[in-house]
Amino acid sequence: MTIPVVTQLGRMTLALLATIGAVTSFAAQAIRQGLQPPYYRRQILRQMLEIGYYSLPVVGLTAIFTGMVLALQSHTGFARFSAESAIPNVVVVSLTRELGPVLAGLMVAGRVGAAMAAEIGTMRVTEQIDALTTLSTDPFKYLVAPRLIAGILTLPVLVLVADIIGVLGGYLVGVYKLDFNDATYLRNTVDFLQFQDVLSGLVKAAVFGFLITLMGCYHGYTSKGGAQGVGAATTSAVVSASILILTSNYFITEAFFAR
Amino acid sequence: MNAPKISLRGVTKAFGAKQVLRGIDLDVAAGESAVVIGGSGSGKSVLLKCILGLMRPESGSIEVDGEPTTGLRDGERTRVMRKFGMLFQGGALFDSLRVWQNVAFGPIQSDGMAPAKARDLAMAKLANVGLGPEIGELFPSELSGGMQKRVALARAIAREPEIVFFDEPTTGLDPIMADVINELIVKCVSDLGATAVSITHDMASARKIGHRIVMLYDGRLIWQGPVKDIDHCGNAHVEQFINGRAEGPIRMQVRRL
Q: What number is the average pLDDT over the span A120-135?
């Protein structure tokens, strides 16, 4: 009775380790190829546009409503201690440290990670990736590296915009619903905000950008077996990116603030 | 006879427990057009991908112009790849790029040609395969299967490769378009003076584009000889295949490789 369970556990552990090894060597090859010329600048710009600009509406909406609901919820709690003046600070710290990068990361994982896995997966099953190789173009240089670079560079900018829009959401609720004085709200927002709060959020964003694009590329690149395989790759890209975002988020937070 | 352009010795390849190539010895002379025939799952595509370097064989050696290519590193691989052109079965055109950009991809991205010049080159190559400049502005998804094959052929020959590979060039085409593609292949290969290696299970195509036919069965090379000899080769496997009979020594592969 116990043997099958142990066997199963062993198989799962081995499969997990094999996947970690495969992803690591994929990432290493992508970084090695990405650092050597030729650099495909046009591809990098195209991906930056795709990841950053076209994600603005969905990330902006997420941010503004998160900021609004933060102000509303913290008011419910803090009113019991007559600590309403802390609301602007709670909103801005929560957004810059946590919610900005994590929510933007999750939205981008759903939008961009999935699209990357589907696009590269389709290129794989239709032999377009093999075709790149036969045209003397390294697929890691042409497809993977530009996406990784674009992800690392663009997500911090996107998160910075999300932070600002989120604070705006909190401000709107604070001033127009909770009767804050607008100048007081802004002063409380800025006064207690530390550089490290924003910085940690931007570092998280860069890491998330790397993880999202890495998962999108890896699962697309290794997909096989036609439409079903591409579908599975898309799902895996989004799920694995989301899990990696949430776990790495904890460890980056610990590295920054746990002392 | 001169040294062979491509030379394979004892090439084996397996996927897990499944042995796909069981020791292939094959020489292709410069300027020759060799056609590899065989049923689905006989290992034809794997053989081609091993020669191209898209897959690495488990053992055996592959030499191109006398240079071993199995252990090449990235940079050297790119240099050897420069000699190759490949027509993929499904065309494998880049669907995000226009037709002319597809044809000009190699010259622009790998050889650093200026886009304007590469565009003229692409239009000339498209004309070679019977397509007008207006086709160049379209996207691959707007073209019919036969037109896509022509574009893919133009892309394969755009860098004037020394060796061209054709992966089932006529599969999925109607007989007339298939013959058009066959003629284009013959013309392009002789214009370039290139060495050609094709894989197909279409006998009409094999007879038209090949000088020499090689039959692969169950991961082994079971017959090879000039096209004219194939009808009286005396090999039961080959005769079953070229006559398309269900009855005979060949057992069909069930699982794909």
A: 92
Q: CB pairs under 8 A, 24+ apart, for B119-123?
A: B121/B158, B122/B154, B122/B158
Residue range A241-252: mean pLDDT, rounded? 96
In a domain, A34, yes or no: no
Domain of A90, in residue numbers: 40-257
Contact B105 A134 (CB under 8 A): no
Q: Decide: B156 and B184 in contact? Cβ < 8 Å.
A: no
Interface of B with A in 68-87 (CB under 8 A): 74, 78, 81-82, 84-86
Question: What pLDDT does A249 receive?
Answer: 95
CA distance A175 to chain B (A): 48
Question: Does A102 reside within a domain?
Answer: yes
Find the angle CA(A230)-CA(A235)-CA(A240) to the nearest 5 degrees.
125
Q: With beta carbons less than 8 A apart as the criterion, state whether B28 and B197 touch.
A: yes
Cβ separation B88–A136 shorter than 8 A: no
Element (H, E) at B109: none
Let me know if residue A231 belongs to a domain. Answer: yes
The total domain count for chain A is 1
- Residue of A187, A193, A183, A140 whose CA lies nearest to A163: A193
Note the ipTM here: 0.86
Q: For the segment B45-75, what is each residue's pLDDT rounded down to a tens digit? A: 888 989 988 888 888 888 888 888 887 877 7
